[in-house]
Design a protein that fits this description.
Elements: E1 2-8, E2 11-16, E3 28-37, H1 40-48, E4 67-68, E5 72-80, E6 92-95, E7 98-99, E8 119-120, E9 134-137, E10 141-143, H2 150-154, H3 156-169, E11 176-180, H4 184-195, E12 200-204, H5 208-217, E13 222-224, H6 231-237, E14 245-250, H7 255-264, E15 265-273, H8 285-291, E16 294-297, H9 306-314, E17 324-329, H10 333-342, E18 350-354
Parallel strand pairs: 11-12, 11-14, 12-13, 14-15, 15-16, 17-18
Antiparallel strand pairs: 1-2, 1-4, 3-5, 3-9, 3-18, 5-6, 6-10, 7-8
Helix pairs in contact: 3-4, 6-7
């Protein structure tokens, strides 16, 4: 079968590989991926990897590079193991890609995403969404309602990252919110805070193309250039008495963005780290203290969030498909996928791949 595989930095190949063979385990689900998103994590691997893709066999899954990519995807069920009752052959699913022990300290508490042995389909698992077939565990195959499309189903994974940040920030009806960064996760975060009832949404983004995309996608948002002046002052102008926002969501993963969020939030407000920081950040902890703020960090998402997001999408209150800017075939995955997303012009947000 055809698959997109990561071998090393700047080395992604479309190759013929063996299909999942033999009898599937009792709790396995054999699937045919439909459409797969390219994630920021995939981009990091492409530029400087291997980072999270395993050079040595993964401690839990046993997988090792070369890795079939793709952890944001929809699929159709081909067959199920004898113990699987949640899905059946022919069902459409959205793949929740996290794999981990069910009975370690965190697994026994339902905190599967926090296991030290965490693996991920498409990053540290034998299979991924950019292959014609894959095997996942029963808990990875999340049934989706007829009212959402294959593309929307593929977007549930990145939407989960965004919604978890919004949940951790306590965004509610009437909240004032700053979203720092209008990349794919930032854009999904804007849609998520709107779904949560935020009354004022401010988006900080230095790239003019992304500001344009964001303005078209979310006309209710105040989209600003952080380089055009004092961001905290600009944010203050949109809030009562200039106090700052209730919640600031950092979706870039850069020190400057994190500090701008701390400066822009009101006293006793919340700053939420959503973007992953690849190196340590210098912060003004005294400012945090003087403002009596809460700083929340996030890692992945609770895996139980899938049905909730599917319902939100089906109800039309979380239009995740708005973030999709291109659709390509696997043969174009490097040039029109990875390289396009790394273009400093920033004309693409989310690219979906069909294998």
């Amino acid at each position: 079968m055809r698959a997109v595989r990561f071998h090393g930095a700047k080395d992604i190949r479309v190759e013929d590989v063996g299909e999942p063979a033999g009898n599937i385990a009792a709790d396995d689900v054999l699937i045919a991926p439909i459409v797969t998103g390219i994630c920021g994590t995939d981009l990091h691997e492409y530029v400087t990897g291997p980072i999270v893709t395993p050079v040595q066999p993964h401690v839990y899954t046993g997988a090792a590079n070369p890795q079939i990519l793709g952890h944001e995807f929809s699929a159709r069920v081909l067959a199920v193991g004898d113990a699987v009752s949640s899905v059946s052959a022919g069902d459409r699913v959205s793949v929740q890609p996290l794999v981990s022990p069910r009975h370690d300290y965190y697994g026994k508490r339902g905190l599967y995403h926090l296991s030290p042995q965490l693996g991920c389909v498409g990053l540290s698992w034998a299979w991924g969404g950019m292959g014609e077939k894959a095997i996942v565990k029963d808990y990875n195959a999340q049934l989706v309602p007829d009212g959402i499309t294959d593309e929307q189903a593929a977007m549930i994974e990145p939407a989960a990252v965004a919604l978890y940040g919004v949940d951790r920030g306590g965004v509610e009806a009437g909240s004032t919110v700053l979203v720092s960064g209008a990349g794919p996760i930032g854009a999904l975060t804007v849609l998520a805070v709107r779904a949560a009832g935020a009354a004022t949404v401010i988006v900080s983004e230095p790239n003019p193309n992304r500001r344009r995309i964001m303005s078209n996608m979310a006309p209710y948002a105040h989209v600003v250039d952080p380089g055009s002046g004092d961001l905290a002052q600009v944010v203050g102008d949109f809030t009562e008495e200039g106090v700052g926002v209730d919640v600031a969501l950092e979706c870039v993963g850069l020190e400057a963005s994190l500090n701008a969020c701390a400066q822009s939030v009101r006293r006793q407000g919340k700053v939420v780290q959503v973007g992953l920081h690849m190196k340590p950040a210098n912060v003004d902890a005294m400012l945090w203290a003087l403002k009596d703020i809460t700083v929340e960090a996030t890692w992945c998402y609770p895996t139980q969030i899938w049905p909730r997001i599917a319902r939100m999408i089906e109800a039309g209150i979380f239009p995740v498909e708005k973030v999709i800017t291109a659709r390509i075939g696997a043969e174009d995955v490097v040039e029109k996928g990875f390289e396009a997303l790394l273009d400093p012009a920033g004309e693409q947000l989310k690219i979906l791949v069909t294998t």
